[in-house]
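[Meeting: bench + compute handoff]

Bench side (C.D.) handed over the final construct sequence. Compute side (W.E.) agreed to return the predicted structure before the next meeting so the bench team could plan truncations. Sequence as handed over:
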Amino acid sequence: MIQEILHVSSRCGGGKSREAIRELVRHLASMQTVSETYLFASSTLALSGQNYSFTLAEISKYPQSQISVKKVDYETAVGTVADAIRNLLEGGFKGVMFISHKALAILSPQLLRDVRVVIDEVPQQLAGTLMVKHDPSRQNTSWEQYLQFSQTTNGDEIVSLVPNVRASVENLIRDIRSRFDDTLTFSVADLLEHLLVGQEPVYRGKTTIDGKPCQMYQAVYYHPLKKLVDNVSYLAVLSAQLKDTLFGFICVELLKLTIVEKPVNESTQLEKKHRNRARIIPILSGGVWSTALRKKPVNEALVNAQGQSVSSTLAVGMFAQEFAERILGRQDFMITLNTEEQMLESLEVRGIVRTTTKVHGMNHLTYLDHAVYLAATNLTPFDERIYRKFANDRSLPIAQLLKAIKVERSYENAYQCIARTSVRNQPNSLKMHTFIVPDYEYATYIASWFETGYARVLTQKSFLTKSEYDRRAARQKRLDTLVSILTQRRNKKAKLKDLLKAADLSRAAYDNHIKEFRLELHLKGLLPSKPSKGGTLGDLYPTLKQTKL
């Protein structure tokens, strides 16, 4: 088992893959005979093809060296991709083999033993959630004969395999993945494999398909990741960031591995941040972007900075597209939407480039200077529920886990999309890029990928959700009430109990508000920065005598 993961980081377009391949080829060319096996796993076929072609070009610079390179995918494999990879590895392949993240996830432990692995971009196939929605009245139920169920003390229904069915289940998984049995989905194969491993519990619950009740099987999986780190002799990840991902969280918090930030070599320094100028405009200056919000009418969901409702009756998602078009005018840009999202007709007529959130390897959009990202990729309530169970069962920090998933699924996704534009190119001080993103947290995350002073977050034209505006207004009211009470108390206008009664505030609520606003009250000169011991007036006003409150 390896003890550390090497992380090569840079901004998007900073040359991680290119420089890593150059160093790898140089390393292999230095051998008389290549004696190492590298699996170079990419997230998409397009990215794998680019890396493969660049590797061949680099190898041509070493005509005296014999370095084997193979690209194995559904276009090149004879039979299944898994079989093609297995045949090469069992045949003693030495050199570099380009495969997908998905293929890497399903390789057996025996094939991974002592192999050296380089992963381009964070591989979501190695750790995540499984979810199978199953309607027995309309779908093949043959696989359920291998399942048994039990209930926990808190009412959860746990799924496991019945005894002595391993061989049958393994055969079924093989039939599904080879498409010999095309009546079952790959997600069923993933679920059965998870049950075979038995590492984390599978829960069964109830949900709906097209409004009809059905069963839902759900689990957190990371056995492909554990299988990898237990067997390979070397693992490096090339990505913008790694620690704030589910992959990184599980490596550090659960598997107790160390992530080591490492340069490609001592003489190559990759650019960590962009040095192009950008203005970043969030749709929301307050509140959180979500799938549910996108579908609400604007006049019911959004307000301006003064708390006035926005008059439009469009759904928030369509209104956001109109907002972006008003900001960018006739300038060309790319827009990222969820697959099911309708695109504004005026944008379609103009031929505005549309992408999904799957953009790795898409480097043909650098002629565009501006981008709009309006996709919603939040955790579903089902996913959050299962991650909370996972964290509680393993005594893992749930807040840190949910933050990592949020960064990976939402903020990093947005950054990867806007970085398809010319912002990834070498700096051009005459050009200003404009990026329109869902909310303030997206904006500040993207701005963090720019050198200080190169990106500005502008919220003058942004909106707030009504719920966020109401929350802020209620907070301000609490603060104003406290300021009034403490000011009058300091000026000896009335006793505390009378001031609390006049404000219709209980002592418990008052104490909680003091904790909430301690910093603000300190800055206003109404509280010390830290409370001293003892519940006395001296805690609040050190100049007063020590009288019990």
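W.E. noted at the follow-up: Residues 70 and 256 are 33 Å apart (CA to CA). C.D. will use this when planning the next construct.
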